[in-house]
Design brief:
The chain is of the alpha/beta class. Helix content is about 45%, strand content about 15%. The longest helix has about 35 residues. Bound molecules: 4'-deoxy-4'-aminopyridoxal-5'-phosphate (PMP). InterPro entries: Aminotransferase_I/II_large, Asp_trans, PyrdxlP-dep_Trfase, PyrdxlP-dep_Trfase_major, PyrdxlP-dep_Trfase_small.
């Protein structure tokens, strides 16, 4: 039976990692993989995470199962971090296996509620969005998002396309730090998106995987909070992988805002059911680390300070790269790098130019020219800038 399986297309980003490892050149630069790296190339365990783990190790007396929805302390603390004020009478939530698990289950929930659902998704988007929907057999339509000329959001096109989503359809939005482009909506544009969804009755699913990596914890959630305050039904898939640096602990939260308390209870039940079907009880360690940090003033302050350092490192590298490119290219056409937010920017290079950067300069980025700013440091920024200009990008 198993020999009937068809080979799966290898993940392009994972292939790139392998290719990078096999490259023996000195000075090669990895801008492919989607994890934060400090200027020494290390993905650190954050200080508050270490301390929380120590406290958990000292105090935990049992590792019996948690509850199906995950611990309430975690769900409440993370929902508050995302939403600011949590409207308890209309908020359902379950702990999930990472942000990916929350997205997957949000889509399953949408299909349970509306078997005819179509999902509207940005073009481009995180490739796993598309791959999960294809695997689920879920119909989806891409909406225009990125303007290859300005490297900003093509907002008129986006509005025209998401307006086609009907009542009971889902519109998948990146809450902040759009992956892969780095181009984001302004608060005014979020207002307009809300007005479109208000009119059509389509439901937003907000993928919030980088809260704190763009302009700050609250600033990065402002679009999500606006949507949550204005629309009757909202799905949010939050991930703690990046902002707590606990990638491998698989810590996520699916939040659903519902029309009323009755719908909240139904939704809570359906989401716990989905946990049960998919993996039963959710992972607890990462969730406990997060709730330990968020509910202790000292740990929370230290975590926020370290997150701020990460954010400022990214912003500093963006500014440095944009300014190097300004002087080397004698133009402002790369200023978008300083305007983008989060870990990624789409450079707008052709596949051939991406190939040239790899072959000539040992600079690895994803084929669509997404570069991970965190793969740089102050010394490698000028190297990249020179290679970009030499490749004629
Ligand atoms: N959404 C986006 C846009 C992402 O980039 C990622 C991580 N690469 C995720 C969701 C999922 O994160 P995780 O499952 O690791 O929590």
């Amino acid at each position: 039976m198993l020999s009937n399986l068809k080979p799966q297309a290898p993940d392009k980003i994972l292939m790139l990692i392998e290719e990078f490892k096999g490259d023996t050149r000195q000075g090669k630069i990895d801008l492919g993989v989607g994890v934060y790296k400090d200027p020494n190339g290390v993905t650190p365990v954050m200080r508050a995470v270490k301390e929380a783990e120590k406290r958990i190790w000292e105090s935990q007396t049992s590792k019996a199962y948690t509850v199906l929805a995950g611990e309430a302390d975690y769900r409440n603390a993370l929902a508050a971090m995302v939403l600011g004020d949590v409207p308890a009478d209309r908020t359902a939530s379950v702990a999930t296996v990472g942000g990916t698990g929350a997205i997957r289950q949000a889509l399953e929930l949408a299909r349970m509620a509306n078997p005819d659902v179509t999902v509207y998704v940005s073009d481009p988007t995180w490739p796993n969005h598309l791959s999960i929907m294809k695997f689920m057999g879920l119909p989806f339509v891409e909406y225009r998002y990125f303007d290859n000329e300005t490297r900003g959001v093509d907002f008129e096109a986006m509005k025209a396309d998401i307006a086609k989503a009907g009542k009971g359809d889902v519109v998948l939005l990146h809450g902040c730090c759009h992956n892969p482009t780095g181009a984001n909506l302004t608060l005014d544009q979020w207002q307009e998106v809300v007005a479109i969804l208000e009119k059509s009755g389509a439901i937003p699913l907000i993928d919030l995987a980088y809260q704190g990596f763009g302009d700050g914890l609250d600033a990065d959630a402002q679009g999500t909070r606006l949507v949550a305050s204005r629309l009757p039904e909202v799905l949010i898939a939050a991930s703690c992988s990046k902002n707590f640096g606990i990638y491998r602990e698989r810590t996520g939260l699916l939040i659903a805002l519902t029309e009323n308390a009755e719908a909240r209870d139904l939704t809570q039940g359906a989401m716990a059911f989905l946990n049960r079907q998919n993996f039963s009880f959710p992972p607890d360690h990462g969730a406990r680390v997060v709730s330990t940090i968020l509910t202790d003033d000292g740990l929370r302050g230290d975590w926020m300070a370290e997150l701020e350092e990460i954010r400022n490192t990214l912003l500093g590298l963006r500014d440095q790269l944009a300014s190097e490119l300004r002087s080397l290219s004698d133009s402002d056409r790369f200023d978008f790098i300083a305007r983008h937010r989060g870990m990624f920017s789409r450079l707008g290079a052709t596949p051939e130019q991406v190939q040239t950067l790899k072959q000539e300069s040992g600079i690895y980025m994803v084929g669509d020219s997404r570069l991970n700013i965190a793969g740089l440091n102050r010394d490698t920024v000028p190297v990249l800038a020179r290679a970009i200009v030499e490749a004629g990008i």
